[in-house]
């Protein structure tokens, strides 16, 4: 009779597996009160009890419950497909998905075991309608890449735990592209995140870890207490970088550019780039050779070398780095892009960037977001960067918990570009190796950024002289007792019979012997590097700004080029005002009207292109120009298509690239610095929307542009166009903070120029690339002068002129009558000119200083020496007294003036010192202008 009930139960889909307990509960209720369960259940339980009664056997309720259970088990084994099973199958699929999404939150990532790991509800069976009772049930694996179609729930969970919750925590499910998500699933699940590495690979890992640890120990013993920002606790970084480089070689890349802050830098320089340890020791001992500049501390130094990989020789470049932790990231991007462009590589396959970050800086510093944001834009993409976070879980002395960030992981910022993130426990070297391989493969396949979060620790303090347990006592209690990753891994390999203690010691001894000899320890280092792999800077070494180039250009050629860049394809519909600009340019070429700024600038680029140089111009809205003067990119009014006339000049080999930048100054300027310090033959220009926006990039100006050559011997021909001029627009859009650039000027580090005519900008831009000198050029560029009727030039000025550091008086004023000399820079000249004309004064000469630094003392002297009867000299500026050129230039003015007439003094005429750069009220602005112009003219 029982069979009858069992049959019924078998037909009752809800009676299986996890629902047994539910049925039991209902049955208990039924026993207490028949009415408390639904009619269907009542019938069912009735039939059970009645059924047992008809067998004449007294069947206990316990037995009935046991039947429920057995029946459920039987159903699982027989694999009968039921609705219940199907529901559970859905639960299994949900569970698999949950592991992919949130498995990383359960992974064992922290070698110290301190990482806060909250319970993840989605990873529990009950969350998906499953229970332990289902563990032996066979389910379809469906999307899982475990290599079999069905598996028991236990097998599935074990596999998922192994894949997603052991030493690797993979975050990739936030990526929108299903293709990419599937790629990760396939790569991780097919080996359950544990590829079986052979002995050779394991011994290779062993060797890298041994080198990483031994170097730190060696330096620590030899130079106790000396700052080296050691890698102890994060030694696994070395196998990662090593693997990435090997992979880059396999993908036939020719160069790898690395950017990193100080932690572990010496280790990477010695163990990856093959810097000779003798040089490093000399740096520790303070006996290293230094050039003419200030030099920099050893843990900021860059380095270059070539190493052999399975795919051939690869050039490695470690970027020089200031102490500002993250700023090197966009510099590296710029350097990589320059190298890729040289190879005409549009996909990023030939050069790979690797950037090594600290956890606190990665989550804390805004330039990280800016750099990530640029990674897929036209102007800045480099085919994907591999970011490595040396996550030692403490920022100097600031703890991760509560203070260092608001997000769970330091890497969360990378999700801004959907970058996959591979967290990995640094004490599991094989997991580390696996994520390195994945990262490289992903980068080359999808051309996008990827992040490796190497969760490690810092065995010592922030530096070697620092005691960390004062601020992180619990963490350091654990660290003290923790064996190093190398010692853990060598024990593992000994256990696996891949090596033995004697062999381990031999390896260490051999490595130390190399260090003692001062040799390079990198076996793959190429002794005679292929120089063709990198740019040749030798033609640019050893020049001073006195070596002017010839910036003249054949007039007929200029005219021809102008006609070329003033024509657009047949049918191209120009916007009305733009058409007027183009028509006017043609008139300028034909000498029907005077040359204006936009035309002269465009001709400068055209002539530079013709002379074999590429031009790269970026910045916010540069295509049109903030003040609508450039129109280098034209837009068809019917189709929206863009046409860049300078890209269609005849007889040019190199490219004209112009990109509107995304709304960043810091990363963008750093990128252009990186580009310009890598490629000496491209004219690289960054234009600020307004000059004061350069404030946002002050770190780049201070720590790279003005001091990079001095600190690191890196030349840089970058040009900055910074719109500057007091035109009543208020405190924010008037000043490019000229005073800051002048204050940073020393030892001829940069050129600061304030051109006031179209011919001046033509020759200034040409001079910057034509002469071999590569030094940054900072241009206070105009706004209203772009259209000022007096600020014009002739085609002859362009063809036959040069850049004048000083422009002498231009009007026919008799020198002997001149008793008053006004010196000035920039647009204020035109106000002075107008006022002098209005006053009819014949005793005033006005001389413009167009290059404020390096100060052209001889040129100024030559411009004023004809004025023998001078009585008064005035420096007139539109900026307030505490700003502009006055304080940093007056000694130069005085030198030139007193060289001419000893007793002369230089007086100031300008706005009173002011906290804000300019007045916000137009009436006040005009009043101030009138007053100081009057003061300059009339005294
Ligand atoms: P890199 O490819 O950046 O490693 O540079 C290769 C070599 O070119 C360096 O070792 C330097 O000798 C030289 N070099 C690269 N960039 C510059 C620069 N901006 N100024 C001077 N020399 C450079």
UniProtKB/TrEMBL annotation:
Record EC number: 1.2.4.2
UniProt keywords, alphabetically: Oxidoreductase, Thiamine pyrophosphate
Cofactor: thiamine diphosphate
Stretches assigned to the Transketolase-like pyrimidine-binding domain: 595-788
GO MF: oxoglutarate dehydrogenase (succinyl-transferring) activity
Highest taxon above the source species: Bacteria
Oxidoreductase as UniProt keyword: yes
Pfam families, A to Z: 2-oxogl_dehyd_N (PF16078), E1_dh (PF00676), OxoGdeHyase_C (PF16870), Transket_pyr (PF02779)
Reported function: E1 component of the 2-oxoglutarate dehydrogenase (OGDH) complex which catalyzes the decarboxylation of 2-oxoglutarate, the first step in the conversion of 2-oxoglutarate to succinyl-CoA and CO(2).
Family recorded in the similarity comment: Belongs to the alpha-ketoglutarate dehydrogenase family.
Name by which UniProt lists this protein: oxoglutarate dehydrogenase (succinyl-transferring)
